[in-house]
Amino acid sequence: MFHRKMMENVHLAPDADEDDLYSGYNDYNPTFDTEDLENDVAFQQAARTSHGRRPPGTARIPGTPTSRPLATGFGSKATLTSSMGRPVTGAIQDGVARPMTAVRAAGYTRAAMRGSPFDPLGQGRGPVPPLEAKNADSAEEKIRQLEKKVNELVEESCIANSCGDLKLALEKAREAGRKERVLVRQREQINSPENLDLTYSVLLNLACQYAANGMYAEALNSYQVIVKNKLFTSGGRLKVNMGNIYLKQRNYSKAIKFYRMALDQIPSVHKEMRIKIMENIGVAFIKTGQYIDAISSFELIMSMSPNLKTGFNLILCYFAIGNCEQMKKAFQKLIAVPCEVNYDDKYISPNDDPHTNLLIEAIKNDSLGQMERERKSMAEDYIMTAAKLIAPVIETSFAVGYDWCVEAVKTSQYVELANDLEINKATTYLRQQDFKQALETLKMFEQKDSNVKSAAATNLSFLYYLENELAQAANYADLAVISDRYNPAALTNKGNTIFAKGDYEKAAEFYKEALGNDSSCTEALYNLGLTYKKLNRIDEALDCFLKLHAILRNSAQVLHQIANIYEIMGDPNQAIEWLLQLISVVPTDPHVLSKLGKLYDNEGDKSQAFHYYCESYRYFPSNIEVIEWLGAYYIETQFCEKAIEYFERAALILPTQEKWHLMVASCYRRSGLRFLVHLCTDMGMKEVQEYTTKLKKVEKLKEIREQRIKSGRDGSARSRREGNAISDSGGTKGERLNARLKAFPETSEPYESSICKEIDVSYIDPLGPQAERPKTAARKRAEEDDFADEELGEDMLPE
């Protein structure tokens, strides 16, 4: 029975409507017919009475027949009730039916008006109207374009600064500043609000670029503009930058003042920035020698956020005031700072998986890995430097101080540095020339792990090599190589011991292996170049030293080797260029200066050779080769009096060699009348005045002769020009010859004769003929000297 009742309520759709999926959508309910509302008497009466104007009722439970007023799209309120008692939720706007619910269906709403077509995509509305074209001439558009240009200039300035082009960065920043000021004026004209962020960024970038270019006054002015403007809420922080500029200018009091002002304006939530400012304050106090105030800043930082740099600075301050106990406490605080780098354990492969090993090798050398290595190296440098600084002063002896530092490090996270401190202890013994203690300290590492043993054996090998005990040096070099085959220092020492034995080929192999393990091992590269020189492989030696020069730009030894190789190769010009670079590094090296003089002399440049030989003599006046060259140069240039000075110094240096005394005598002989005056003066003879007068007369005649020669040469050139003119005008051959003869000076000597010969031949000796001169004691001694010189001959004079 129950089943039959259920089936009576089930109505099957007719077969004709099976394919009509949208049936029922066009059915019209007369309740929604609003066209005849004006003729509906009951509706109009309800609208005019108070019943139609009563406020809407409260919400009721859905499904009840009570309706509620609805605000239509036209602003009026009407109560429209559907056949089910449900209020209508939509109205007509501009001929388009508003959806019945909050979310409109995809076109499947019942049409608001009869005959409305089905248009879910709104194609019947027509094409979309075109966008409004921008008015490029409007003030707002010009301001927007100018703002865009200013931002681009600021970005270009920052990029140029990051690329290292500071000049271009400053130019861009200045241009951005100019355009920003134009932008402000344009905004004022149209009463547009200011873009404070843009102004702030332009001024800040300009100040930074001024500071980067060393224009500190301009940078400070730009920062002042920002700081004094109250509209820039974070401008007070820039006083840190102003403090940095004053610190660079060494105006430490003002730097401290601005740092403190910035510290007052930075809230406590910015802990890192406050700590950095306090570090700057401490450094400024160190610069002014106020170590107590610096200690206060550094102690506060170490209590809040300890770091390696501050801990090291704290040790320096206590060292400066000589407080040994506080030095120990500060060192313990330093080694307690966490390194936060577990470099060794992180990159150890847990298994032999090749994929994992490849991944570990890849990340081991990435930027993060490099940063970790740098941080670890920095921590080790701070601790090692601090230990070497305080060890000699914190205890009665440096050995006891080193022992205290070693024990302190062993109890810290930097336990691996203890062995390095022990090796540094041995190095300190070496500096003190205490080789016995150094050897004993290093021999303690023979039973330790391979890395430490290799380092100790390397130092032992070096010590024995210095003492010329090559057998012991070779033994410890072998031990160092066996302990750590990848230790470049050990391989270099091994090569040195073989080099000392003369086996250059084998030594070169060890140097190459050291470079294979560490391409920056400059000692191995230098020794390899020396080995190639010994093997006469000059090109390879030059290649080694040029590579080394790229690493060590100002190494005097490398520059000297390169110059020497070019000299061996027969290229004196290149050798001179490298020696000139060398004297820019060591300008007072007499051997380099004499070498330059020799090269210039070989090239025939006597003036440059004379200059560098004189400089060499000035710094080292005991070099016999330089003295001999300078004496010969003065003799060659007819300044025998100057040559006497150098030969007398040579006689003082080598008094047992008669050569220099004879050269002094020969110079006196060549001096002639000047020597006679000098001799008479030394002997106190009355003829001094007479010979002096005659000497002055000769010198005056010499000057006249030189002037005549000069005027004769000028006349010769003029006569040749006149002769050519006569030839061109058709003069006779005799006239031309007569003109040429007149151009020659009136002398019996050749035209290019020396000055001395001209004086001797062209003029009568003012002292008179030799036979008619009185036989004075001075003259007699001079004749004896002349005889001695004739016996010596000219071979004794240096060429």
UniProtKB/TrEMBL annotation:
**GO molecular function list:** kinesin binding
Q: Which GO terms describe its cellular component?
A: centriole; centrosome; ciliary basal body; ciliary base; ciliary tip; cytosol; intraciliary transport particle B; motile cilium
Entry keywords, A to Z: Cell projection, Cilium, Cilium biogenesis/degradation, Cytoplasm, Cytoskeleton, Flagellum, Repeat, TPR repeat
Source organism per UniProt:
Melopsittacus undulatus (Budgerigar)
Q: What is this protein called?
A: Intraflagellar transport protein 88 homolog
Keyword Repeat applies: yes
Regions of compositional bias (Basic and acidic residues) in chain numbering: 708-723, 772-783
Q: Where is this region: Disordered?
A: 45-71, 708-733, 766-799
Where are the compositionally biased (Acidic residues) regions?
A: 784-799
Which InterPro entries does the entry mention?
A: TPR-like_helical_dom_sf, TPR_rpt
- Spell out the subunit comment: Component of the IFT complex B, at least composed of IFT20, IFT22, IFT25, IFT27, IFT46, IFT52, TRAF3IP1/IFT54, IFT57, IFT74, IFT80, IFT81, and IFT88. Interacts with IFT20, IFT22, IFT25, IFT27, IFT52, TRAF3IP1, IFT74, IFT80 and IFT81. Interacts with IFT172. Interacts with IFT57. Interacts with IFT46. Interacts with IFT70B. Interacts with C2CD3. Interacts with ENTR1 (via N-terminus). Interacts with LRRC56. Interacts with DZIP1. Interacts with CCDC38. Interacts with CCDC146. Interacts with CFAP53.
Q: Which gene encodes it?
A: LOC101871286
Q: Which Gene Ontology BP terms does the record give? A: inner ear receptor cell stereocilium organization; intraciliary transport; kidney development; non-motile cilium assembly; regulation of cilium assembly
Function, as annotated, reads: Positively regulates primary cilium biogenesis. Also involved in autophagy since it is required for trafficking of ATG16L and the expansion of the autophagic compartment.
Q: Extract the PROSITE patterns matched here.
A: TPR
Per the UniProt record, one Pfam family is TPR_8
Principal localization reads: other
Q: Which residues form a coiled coil?
A: none
Protein's cellular compartments: Cell projection, Cilium, Flagellum; Cytoplasm, Cytoskeleton, Cilium basal body; Cytoplasm, Cytoskeleton, Microtubule organizing center, Centrosome, Centriole
